[in-house]
Amino acid sequence: MGDLFANLYTGFMVSLSLTNIFYCFLGVFTGTLIGVLPGIGPVATISILIPSTFHLSPITGVIMLAGIYYGAQYGGSTTSILLRIPGETSSVITCLDGYEMARQGRAGPALGIAAFGSFIAGTLGTFGLAVVAPPLAGWALKFGAAEYASLMLLGLITATFLGQKSMLKSLAMVMLGLVLSLVGRETITGFPRFTYGVYELEDGLGFIPIIMGLFGISEVFLNLEEAMSRVILTRSKIADLLPSLQDWGRSIFPILRGSVVGFLLGILPGGGATLASLASYTMEKKISKTPNRFGSGMIEGVAGPEAANNAGAQGAFIPLLCLGIPCNVIMALLIGALMIHGVQPGPLTMTKNPELFWGTITSMYAGNLLLLILNLPLIGLWVRILKVPYGILYPLVLVFCIIGAFSLNNSIFEIYLTIFFGLVGYVMRKVDYEPAPLALAFVLGPLFEDALRQALVISRGDFRIFVQRPLSLVFLLAGLGLITFPLISRLTKRVPRIVEIRKP
Amino acid sequence: MKLDRKESISAIVLLFFSLAVCFQAVRYPFGSISKMGPGFLPFYSGLALAALSLGILLHALLASGRKEPGLTEGPKRRNILKVGAVFFSMVAYAFFLDKLGFPITTFCFTLILFKFCESYRWIPALLGALVASLGTYLIFGLWLQCQFPKGWLGV
């Protein structure tokens, strides 16, 4: 316990520095903004803003990018409650009771409990992260090349769960991501692969042009294709934001339950904050004495899921910081950003970069406090921002993408690459191929190749090394379980369908 | 029975791509299992992608009879044209960036989007383009010190 507080102290010394607080504020502000704004999500924003962190230290950059992520969870609830349009998929469930509360003139308490619930969950999530991460990272230190190769394989299988549609297509996207990650000079021999004499490809395809294209530009193209209209619920009063004592009495246990469930589910691959909020809502409905009233403006239906999605967002950092495995696409982006800064996230992060590790964890606490301050008094500002037309936003988004791509190497080639992947991403999403598994596999691909090669060199080409080492076997069995589970579920027809709701 | 064209075409494109990857990979030193060469992983990744593409194609063929009519509804043509216009404007932006310099290219690009893609009136479109180009230049060029190309006019 003493170590825990010493570590937290180290973290707070880093995260509470003036620079880091400023960038944390910038991150959570941007996150809330994009959670509220139409047609741009946290994935696109983080991918666009990664180049702007190049001049920052890795810790400051990650604090800002993480702030965007959990800030977007806050912002997403505002549009869910006032517009019945989920800002993020993790806020889908908030629409049900949040919007009904707004229709009954109780938008204020709904927004208030969403903010307070998120803050409490964020605080508990930060503490949970600080408790769970060190033993997990210590355990991961025992890994050898075989364990890493199996873990990376598990990570690649996990990536298929980021897609919400066809498993087959998600697997294909993982393989495509793996192939794209192999472009450029091979790390051991320096042999050029798939470069075709193009000088710019010798270092491989850039992570930033790929994700900015696949997520940022393709998102703009898709939004342009659909007519966007939104009506803000003007009848609702949003002046009284503080929930009453009765509201608190009904909400506190859903918040606590949502925090625990959210944190645990956040660690799981693919689900993250979205799965957490759905699970919390289902649980509250089952526990409730009046389950039939859910959907008609029950504050429990807002408090629980909002707490869960925030705790889930923080739980997702555990596999990233302890194992170097991203369990969702935003974590993949953060890994990419850290690697650009020369930091390889994994079990050694805690010992090699304690400031980065504990600074990131504690910054989330500071960020949650900033979000509470931002969200409650500034709710009027967010409501006004809701009215910004998309026609003004997207030209700026595109300019940011182009600047981000160019500033990587001061190269026009990177801009063409970004535009190309924008078109590829647009076509892919039109035919229901999701880019998230591709992005994750692109990050893990080179790591997998290196670990696989090392393991096979050690075993002199004997594949049994992967099943003879217990931890490696566990990872392989987990991967096998993950692949077979959907098939079994489909056979028994018990797979719950989670409909993807794209931001308007 | 109507074939799901989108699904089938995408699977065929993926299949050709994966076969191209395999054909290219076999030209690289392959090595052995104990000492993997540069062609090892690309070849097997390509092969796996080819198998998955065949799976998607097969799935599309089998599922074609079950397609619901509502799901084949085409996108709105006018908006597709808008997507095309924005795409080509971006390509033009990349082409002219090192010739005209960042502020001028950004001004022209945003003006085209505001005026012709979004149909704003001339004055709001000009003002929007001016604010966007100057704002981004101040933030990225002067504050964050991005080295933008100067162009023929030296700006």
Task: Summarize this structure as a short list of keywords or feature phrases.
heterodimer; A: 504 residues; mainly alpha; two-stranded antiparallel ribbon; 22 helices; disordered C terminus; B: 155 residues; 5 helices; 0% strand
Structural summary, described in words:
The complex is a heterodimer of chains A (504) and B (155). With 504 residues, chain A is mostly helical. In chain A, 71% of the residues lie in helices and 1% in strands. Chain A contains 22 helices and two strands. In chain A, helix 3 packs antiparallel against helix 4 and helix 10 packs across helix 11. Chain A starts with a helix and ends in a 12-residue tail after the last helix. The C terminus of chain A is likely disordered. With 155 residues, chain B is mainly α. Chain B contains five helices and no strands. The radius of gyration of chain B is 24 Å and the shape is flat. Chain B starts with a helix and ends in a 12-residue tail after the last helix. In chain B, 31% of the residues are buried. About 4% of the residues of chain B have low confidence. The chains are: A mainly alpha (504), B mainly alpha (155). Chains A and B meet through helix 8, helix 9, helix 18, helix 19 and helix 20 of A and helix 1, helix 2, helix 3, helix 4 and helix 5 of B.
Question: Layout of SSEs?
Answer:
The complex is a heterodimer of chains A (504) and B (155).
Chain A: H1 2-15, H2 18-36, H3 42-49, H4 58-83, H5 94-103, H6 107-140, H7 145-159, H8 167-181, E1 184-185, E2 192-193, H9 207-225, H10 245-267, H11 272-287, H12 300-315, H13 317-323, H14 329-340, H15 349-352, H16 354-375, H17 379-385, H18 390-409, H19 412-430, H20 435-458, H21 465-468, H22 470-492
Antiparallel strand pairs in A: 1-2
Helix pairs in contact in A: 1-16, 2-4, 2-16, 3-4, 3-9, 4-5, 4-6, 4-12, 4-14, 4-16, 5-6, 5-12, 6-10, 6-12, 6-13, 6-16, 7-20, 7-22, 8-20, 9-18, 9-19, 9-20, 10-11, 10-12, 11-12, 14-20, 18-19
Chain B: H1 5-25, H2 40-63, H3 77-100, H4 102-117, H5 122-143
